[in-house]
Amino acid sequence: MTVVVPLAPPIMDVPISDSTERMENISLADAQILNLTMISDNLEDQTGRTESGEEVSIILSSDVLFETNSSELNSEAEEILEQVALEIDDSSATTVKIDGHADNTGSDATNVPLSEERAESVKEALADLLTRSGVDFEVAGHGSSDPIADNSTEEGRERNRRVSVTFEK
């Protein structure tokens, strides 16, 4: 059998058998079907996205959107946020979650408010860019409490400084 899925090469020659033999292994968990999640990164503008059957989460690098220790959007941010707004406009979402994150440099006393202010800045920009009404926003700042990369490297810290925008498709 050949298995074909979107965005991947075909998986050739998958064996299928009518055998009644079973492999028993007590340590295996019960089988479960998981939703496929697509993950992609754009190194040019340092954005990323995860996409499941129902939801899209767009990860925006704080280093691209803001100057160091600032929550004021820079000139590069507008073009990126216009693209995000278009996706939200095309979706069925009525709620958009915006989460600000930081690396582990500095203290939570600085990082939590800064990550929340950055998330709020992205919310305000998206609210102005959306062309349809009926979209509510949930904004939160998490400081360094939810890293997606290793904070012991500069590259990891850069990935952890981010704002994520999550909404239903």
Automatic annotation (TrEMBL):
UniProt source species: Nocardiopsis changdeensis
Ranges in a coiled coil: none
UniProt-annotated location(s): Cell outer membrane
Acetylation among keywords: no
Primary location class: membrane
CDD domains, alphabetized: OmpA_C-like
UniProt-listed SUPFAM superfamilies: OmpA-like (SSF103088)
Chain residue ranges for the region called Disordered: 138-169
Keyword annotations of the record: Cell outer membrane, Membrane
Domain of life: Bacteria
Database matches in InterPro entries: Bact_OuterMem_StrucFunc, OMP_bac, OmpA-like, OmpA-like_sf
Annotated ranges, domain OmpA-like: 53-169
Protein name: OmpA family protein
Record bears the keyword Membrane: yes
Classification of source organism: Bacteria, Bacillati, Actinomycetota, Actinomycetes, Streptosporangiales
